[in-house]
Amino acid sequence: MKAIVQDAYGPADVLRLGDVDRPGIGDEEVLVEVRAAAVDPGVWVLMTGRPYLMRVAGFGLRRPKVAVRGRDVAGVVAAVGARVTRFQPGQEVYGTCESGSYAEYASARQSRLAPKPADLTFEQAAAVPVSGMTALQAVRHGARVRPGQRVLVIGASGGVGSFAVQIAKADGASVTGVCGAAKAGLVRSLGADDVIDYAHGEIDRDGRRYDVVIDTAGNRPLSLLRRVLTPRGTLVVVGGGHTAYRFTGGMGRTFRAPLLSMFTGQRLRPLMSRERAEHLEELTRLVESGAVTPVIDRVYPLAAVPDAIRHLTGGHPGGKVVVTVPGAA
Ligand SMILES: NC(=O)c1ccc[n+]([C@@H]2O[C@H](COP(=O)([O-])OP(=O)(O)OC[C@H]3O[C@@H](n4cnc5c(N)ncnc54)[C@H](OP(=O)(O)O)[C@@H]3O)[C@@H](O)[C@H]2O)c1
């Protein structure tokens, strides 16, 4: 099958369109004929091998253990393992995969897939899993946003932020989004009540306090984030600003936040997102109720994945960057 593969860590130039074997599947796995995939900063981490911490964490010291990139997947079930009970061939699914989704076929655990929301195209569905689950866990499980609360989403126009704004609004919050000036209209269209243009004012500029701060941008010190929180407010640290730090990926705030939390009334929580079918199903319900619509910035064909990744890391996309994969059958 055709796939985007890499033999070494490095910039997007290390990626090439090649021919590889179709992935095999275990008893609990599903073979998906990929129709669409998406790009997120995690793809950049696995491509570059940075921060170096991830290499010692088991992703491959000198080169990535899994040669094909791409985590989000939407497609059609081609085959199922012996103990798969939730899916059958021909069914349309979405979720995250193990073998890399920038390929004609991908293998995925059944526990990381859900039926594709009927009203979404494959491209829209592929935009949801990684970013949507992260946003859902930040808003509902990390911050437990309640109706009437004031929520600040930093990085509101990005992959995670565009979902977080919509989910917080669906849960009855008053939302302020932080983004660049060019994205203010987009963020308001997602439901944000107010927008702060980060180029023209810092988040503490008007003395406002928030019950919840969700930080996906990852480039502000904890002291500043705490200053805009109410005395018993909750901060969820989602982004680490990984591109700026070679060794640890800016994980310092992630480690310091829970320590500091022990000495203050504010709850300071790092988020390590998990991939679960029940969270995908929760997102399906939000999509089907009309509360959440994935925002697609740009769609690239499979062969142009390197450009898609360059666009994500340098082009300030609004919403998600998606990859289409021509039918393989
Ligand atoms: N903790 C976890 O489990 C988890 C899971 C998924 C992702 N993440 C991390 O979350 C972060 C965000 O991911 P993503 O997919 O949303 O990335 P993304 O699509 O690139 O979005 C990043 C956003 O940050 C905004 N931004 C840049 N500089 C900013 C600033 N100074 N102030 C406010 N906003 C600023 C960008 O807006 P402009 O385009 O307007 O500049 C953009 O909307 C990444 O670090 C990623 O690795 C963590």
From TrEMBL:
<dbReference type="InterPro" id="IPR036291">
    <property type="entry name" value="NAD(P)-bd_dom_sf"/>
</dbReference>
<dbReference type="InterPro" id="IPR050700">
    <property type="entry name" value="YIM1/Zinc_Alcohol_DH_Fams"/>
</dbReference>
<dbReference type="Pfam" id="PF08240">
    <property type="entry name" value="ADH_N"/>
</dbReference>
<dbReference type="Pfam" id="PF13602">
    <property type="entry name" value="ADH_zinc_N_2"/>
</dbReference>
<dbReference type="GO" id="GO:0016491">
    <property type="term" value="F:oxidoreductase activity"/>
</dbReference>
<dbReference type="InterPro" id="IPR013154">
    <property type="entry name" value="ADH-like_N"/>
</dbReference>
<dbReference type="InterPro" id="IPR011032">
    <property type="entry name" value="GroES-like_sf"/>
</dbReference>
<feature type="domain" description="Enoyl reductase (ER)">
    <location>
        <begin position="10"/>
        <end position="323"/>
    </location>
</feature>
<keyword id="KW-0560">Oxidoreductase</keyword>
<protein>
    <submittedName>
        <fullName>NADPH:quinone reductase-like Zn-dependent oxidoreductase</fullName>
    </submittedName>
</protein>
<dbReference type="GO" id="GO:0008270">
    <property type="term" value="F:zinc ion binding"/>
</dbReference>
<dbReference type="InterPro" id="IPR020843">
    <property type="entry name" value="ER"/>
</dbReference>
<dbReference type="InterPro" id="IPR002364">
    <property type="entry name" value="Quin_OxRdtase/zeta-crystal_CS"/>
</dbReference>
